[in-house]
Amino acid sequence: MLATHAHLSSLKSVFVFRISSLLSPRSDSLLQRTKLQYFSSLRSSDRKFANMAGTNAAAGKSSPEHVAGEWYSVPELRLRDHRFTVPLDYSLDRSASPKISVFAREVVSVGKEEESLPYLLYLQGGPGFECPRPTESSGWIHKACEEFRVVLMDQAGFWKFPRGTGLSTPLTASSMLQMKSAEDLADYLKHFRADNIVNDAEFVRLRIDPDAKPWTVLGQSYGGFCAVTYLSFAPQGLKQVLLTGGTPPLGNGCTADSVYKACFEQIICQNEKYYKRFPQDIEIVHEIVNHLAQSEGGRVLLPSGGILSPKGLQTLGLSGLGSSAGFERLHYMFERVWDPVIIPGARKRISYYFLNAVEKWLDFETNPLYAIMHESIYCQGASSRWSAQRTVAENEDKFDAIRAAKEGRPVLFMGEMIFPWMFDEIHALRPFKDAAHLLAEKKDWPPLYSVVALNNNKVPVAAAVYYEDLYVNFKVAMETASQIAGIRLWITNEYMHSGLRDGGGQVFDHLMGMLNGKKPLF
Q1: Max Cα–Cα distance, the chain, nearest Å
Q2: Which of 489, 32, 20, 23 lies closest to 224, judged by CA?
Q3: pLDDT by residue (tens digit) across 50-81?
Q4: CB-CB contact of 486 with 514 (8 Å)
Q5: Does residue 3 register a pLDDT over 90?
Q6: How many Cα atoms within 13 Å fall on the side-chain side of residue 262?
Q7: Which end of the chain is flanked by fewer CB atoms within 10 Å, N or C?
Q8: Which residues form a coiled coil (predicted)?
Q9: Quick one: pLDDT at residue 518?
Q10: Own/partner pairs for 303-307, CB < 8 Å, 24+ apart?
């Protein structure tokens, strides 16, 4: 088991050279231009957040912009719901911008005097999923509620965003159909990235806390990306930051290409480990791929009306390869791939059980925002141009499922990648194909990070960096950490990307111990 905690200064010489191959020969000049551009953006952003200040006279109480519900209980926890009416577009005058709703749930331990506790904001991963719905005091929430009033802001779940999910004016497969055109939808969705999630967080902080004090932020996965945006543009709202598998790439332009290329090695490694654990699945997956390829149109229908093709089968790696028990869940799903032959001579068929499990596994039916917005989270002043599609094409010999099955090689599953063909094959995504293409070609994405601000960071930061993380590449994470002044790192392979879910109490305690002096620097 690898487990290390260290101050970043002691690690720079060890790790920075490893990721040099991920950067283009122009990276130094790009970084310099990035710093200047971000500095300019930071100034305008500071003005933006400054304009929001001074509006907390009714903080903690209901107002037209903030409706606080009554306290209620689940075992060992007391909860209160908050609904905030926020601008869709913070760059416009408050009265001119359309409004959306952001939902947050306040959580405290039974027996704690909430007024005496500081606030902790939890930003979950994704994009496109809602915050947790606590049913009891357990995991990291149990630990956090011993010290904090926890605020769960709808945003991203396993995949990635607060606004537009859960009870926060949710962008669902049905609600997005209200848009009159693909252009209207793309123009609307451009406001649902980390920059506006931070705007929402500041809006909430100034109203939920009567004293509007800086709060602690815990960012898991994409929630960590948002927390680094927070450090870049609104550090005045932060007391301290905890990151769990959430250190984003900082490069200018669109970093998706470098992220995908860096992740290929780990994707292949996870595939190898999966088939070593379940060698019988090599032949089972071959059978499925051959069956799909030989079916009419090279595919079979899914229960929703979508289709399953060999390349669609490969996307099961999205959650099967990167989380704890993912291997086991994937294997057990393959156990029931075929219908039993009840009548001798009947045609072999993939079972309804398996096809239904595939759709539930991917979860795009209920969380389409993740698929539509995923690559945009890597874009600053450049388009993604379907980065996953382009980078996989460069490795087609490794990831061609039909060819692998014919040659008797293991069929490789994909990692966290979204492809344009998904908007043809997945039923719930089909109406949004044109909008997704518009977003993939959009170039004028605003900055998400300020390297200058991060280099001069004064907010205490502790980060769990998972050595075998499938989604947030270790080398990229280390390069980013080298740019955040004062960050403390806990590098471990004890957990996968889902460490906060799997060992939440231990992970939370470890990171807090690094900030409060209970964990030594070396």
Answers
A1: 77
A2: 489
A3: 344 435 444 556 788 999 999 999 999 999 99
A4: no
A5: no
A6: 25
A7: N
A8: none
A9: 83
A10: 303/352, 303/355, 303/356, 303/359, 304/359, 304/365, 304/427, 304/428, 305/427, 306/359, 306/425, 306/426, 306/427, 306/428, 306/430, 307/425
Q: Determine the Cα–Cα distance for residues 195 and 172; give it in Å rounded to an integer.
A: 21
Residue 444 known to be catalytic: yes
Q: What is the pLDDT of residue 171?
A: 83
Residue written as token pair 């509620």: 145
Q: Which among 191, 427, 497, 510 is annotated as catalytic?
A: 497
Beta bridge partners of 442: none
- What is the per-residue DSSP string for 157-177? TTB--STTSTTSS---TTGGG
Rg (CA), the chain: 23
Give me the residue label for tokens 């680094």.
228
Angle between helices 326-334 and 256-277 (to 10 degrees): 60
Distance of CA 394 to the CA centre of its chain: 25
Q: Helix (H, G, I), strand (E, B), or coil: what is residue 247?
A: coil
As a whole number, mean pLDDT of residues 19-41 equals 34
Given the residues 221, 376, 384, 387, select the one marked as catalytic: 221
Q: Which two tokens stand for residue 147?
A: 């010290």
Q: In this predicted structure, what is the pLDDT of residue 363?
A: 83
